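Hello Y.,

Per our agreement to keep a running log of every chain we model this quarter, I'm adding this entry. I've kept the format consistent with earlier entries: sequence first, then predicted structure.
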Amino acid sequence: MTTDRLDQTTRHWHIGPKHILFGVLGLLTLFVIYNNERFIIDHSDPLWNYYLPVRWLLAPHGLTGAIALCLGASQFSTRLRQRHAGVHRALGRCYVIGVAISAPLGIYVTILRNELPLRIAVITQALLWFLTTAVAFYCIRRRNFQQHRQWMIRSYAITLIFLTDRVLDAIPGLSDLDTDASPTIVWICNIIAWVVPTFIISWQNLTQAPPAGAVAARALS
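Predicted structure for the entry above:
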C-alpha cells in the first residue's frame, strides 16, 4: 500500500513542460520587479518622478495587472480545474475583473504620459487584452469550453507582454528600439502575443485525433 501511494504521488507530481514554462515566467517576473518596478519603493529612481503625476492611476492599474498576471497562470492548471472547479471559476472571475480594470486604466495613463506613437501601441495592446478576455468570458458563460480555452490562451499571452516587453528592453542594444517616438519592441510584443497563441491553438487542433465518425466515413469512401 505504501509503495502504491508513493507511485501515485510521483505520478501526480510529474514535472512537465507546463511547469517548466511557468517556473521560467516566475523567474522573469522577479527579474522585472527588480529591474523595472523598483521605483515604487526606490524614489531616487528617475521613473518615480516620471510617473508621480499619475501615481494614483498607476497604482490600481499595476495592482490589478499583477493580479491578472498571477491568477491567469492558475487557469491553465488541469489539476485545479478538475479537482477544485469552484476555485478555478473564482480565480477566473478575479482574472477577468483584473483585466477589466487594468486595461482601461492603462489606456488613460498612456494618453496622459506618452507620445502619440507609444499611445497607439499601448492602446492597441489594451484593447486586444480587454477583447480577448471578454470573448473568453463570453465563451465560458455559453459553456463553450474549447473556445474558452483558446481565447484564454490569447488573453494570457497579451497579459505576458508586461514581462516580454521589459525583458527584451533589458537586452543591450534593444532598449534603443523602444522609445515613446518609436515603440518598436512594444509592437513586436503585440505581434508575438497574437502569433504564438495562434500557433499553439493550431498545433493542438492538428495533433487531435479525428472523431470516430469521420474515420468511419473516410474508410467507407
